[in-house]
Amino acid sequence: MNETDAHTHDDPVWREALSGHARTRVWMRRLFRILSPGASRRCHLCLAPFDGTAAPIMRAIGRGPWRRNPHFCEQCERFFREHRGGAEVEIAVLYADVRGSTPMAARMRPAEFGAMMQRFYSVATGALTERDAAIDKMVGDEVIGIFLRGLIGDDYRKKAVRAGLDLLRATGHADATGPWLPLGIGVHSGITFVGSVSTESGAYEFAALGETMNLGARLVSSAGTGELVLSDAVWPDVAAELDAKERTLNLKGIDGPVRAHVARVDYANKA
Description:
38% of the residues lie in helices and 26% in strands. The protein is α+β, with helices and mostly antiparallel strands.
């Protein structure tokens, strides 16, 4: 068994941290979000603000940005380091992917494209954390957010869908002039391994792994510009409040057809 295998087990410390039994963590996230509502940078797990009026307080209590990875605070990094492992928990996952990023990059100067993607990361992070997501990854032209039932409550699926709608609006998909960035979004839900995954070299990172993540990635790959593609696992929670069209998908790496529900927020039919 290698080091990665040894640390990807169901650990009771992680289960307590992610299940909602550690209620102090739930209230801490809510408090941090309230303290600096306009913060543009936060810890992707506990939501400690890294700028704004509360930033000096966060640094004083050890929740300033971790130097090796400024997406997390020093205290969350310490938890990752001291408690390698994770737990299988219920989550909803949101994948947001820029449509046509390769030809877009070819038409723009590198610095111009970099600025566009930085704007996307900032807007996406704000939209997702406003709905209590933890940011799993920001890679290339994609942002991935996870919504942990134990940390944000039984409406975690609704929050994931609403975050997707918020992000489409924030990128201009509800504007008559069209979006400033073409985006597709996929949302799925299920049991996922969430934890601190290490490698043989000793490096480690916060990660969510498993079939739930795989299907979420396949859903976003099927989304057109301005589309929010929801799986059957998510749809019942929002069916009463959202107009969507049913679509049958044949997804790479997934056995059999997958039924999905596709919503939009374009200006002609705001969802």
